[in-house]
Amino acid sequence: VRGRVHGKVTFDEIDKFLVPKPAAEGINIDDVVEIISGPFKGERAKVARVDASKEELILELLDSPHTIPIRVHADFAKIVEKARPEEEEGEEEEEMEETDELESFWSR
Question: At 40, which CATH number?
């Protein structure tokens, strides 16, 4: 503790620090996560489904030759890469088309 707060602090101001946030919050479908505990520790997987009420994730291992759904508690997964929204993917395709046109011009 570095110091003391002078004055009064309301319960509403400190409530956000006292209530733990759900483990599955912030994890969405198609995110890439790393399993940090359990038999698949260190494996990377793609999120197939999120069960927020049970705080469980249904994952598909990326390194596995077969897609086997694995049920893991959200506390045992760490987000490595967020899924990109479809709007951003469309913008990248447009940029690629523009660069293809420039390359075809210079290759003549």
Answer: 2.30.30.30
